[in-house]
Amino acid sequence: MTEEPTFQNPNSHSSNNSQPIRATEASRALEREAQLPMTGWQQEVSKGLEYGLEGADSIQDRSIPTFSRGELPHYAGINTFLKAPYLEDVRQVGNYDVAVVGVPHDSGTTYRPGTRFGPQGIRRISALYSPYNFELGVDLREQITICDAGDIFTIPANNEKSFDQISKGIAHIFSSGAFPIILGGDHSIGYPTVRGICRHLGDKKVGIIHFDRHVDTQETDLDERMHTCPWFHATNIKNAPPQNLVQLGIGGWQVPRQGVKVCRERATNILTVTDITEMGLDAAVEFALERALDGTDCVYISFDIDCIDAGFVPGTGWPEPGGLLPREALYLLGKIVQRAPVCGLEVVEVSPPYDISDITALMATRVICDTMAHLVLSGQLPRKEKPYYIHPEAQPELVVR
Ligand SMILES: [Mn+2]
């Protein structure tokens, strides 16, 4: 048993208060911040002054350029994700630890559309964030390199052509070694994103951890492969077995019975919100890791923003009350990322036309930034070499069921 560190409040002068108290998360956060470098920030300032010209004579803070370059000010600038550099030449994507890519596709939507504006909405509100997280003691600018690779060119009139574009784009990013972060788009993109990753897995396998209120496992919907269908098709790929599909937060009045039958037949792993709260968050994490990693080599995270209670995420296609609280979802996500070899993340179903005060897009930003921070804390980022599960030139094999 290790001894808990103690924290003496340096601001306390009272003799009654001289007992050491248990170290708080906040006290540890204050200490961690002191260990983070400022190198990336200093480089950003120098570059800003060089490219954006020194500020006017009346500006006393000489780190401020005339033209906004980089993070500051948060209300200015070109909205890439977290103001990361825009990577125009995607052939260079392997030079970065993380590649953020938008998939502005909402033709798989069966009710409220608008997720084609999801990538733009998420990028816009991401400007609110700095790259530093207090509790986690992570500064993404200092610790990893991120690029924004822009958007995949999707074809609104044709899901299948869009899927082909998405798979090709995600396969390209994944095989480069950059960690792919995908901004949806509706959930139909879950099939082509996983298919793209599987193209470079060879004989390795991926477990899918799926946060959602909906099962998304039916074969077709409205005669096409819509956003209710990605896991039927993804788990037909030999590299993505259905017994490694973990579905967290499922429940309510919007779960199609056709999909439920498929979950039963293929023995996917479902926890409802009540399951998660009754067993406790840590037990739910154990359940997810055990099932997703049983016989697989890595985990793909598909985060449907509607897994969170509809009150927190109004800007989505099928809002459903009774979902996870934001802090529950973030806790589950953080613990999973800390302990699993994660090969990619998608955040889907953010529909800015239905959003209020950008709150849904902000939640998506939080999910993405937390994932990156936990990848840093677990040593998965920055990349020292390509992860072992990436095969140089493999193609996915379909299972006939
Ligand atoms: Mn959903």
UniProtKB/TrEMBL annotation:
Residues 8-20 have a biased composition (Low complexity). One of its GO terms (biological process) is putrescine biosynthetic process from arginine, via agmatine. The keyword Metal-binding applies. The keyword Cytoplasm does not apply. Its EC number is 3.5.3.11. This is Agmatine ureohydrolase, SpeB-like. It is an enzyme of class 3 (hydrolase). Belongs to the arginase family. Agmatinase subfamily. Residues 1-41 are annotated as: Disordered. One of its GO terms (molecular function) is agmatinase activity. Keywords: Hydrolase, Metal-binding. InterPro entries: Ureohydrolase, Ureohydrolase_dom_sf, Ureohydrolase_Mn_BS.
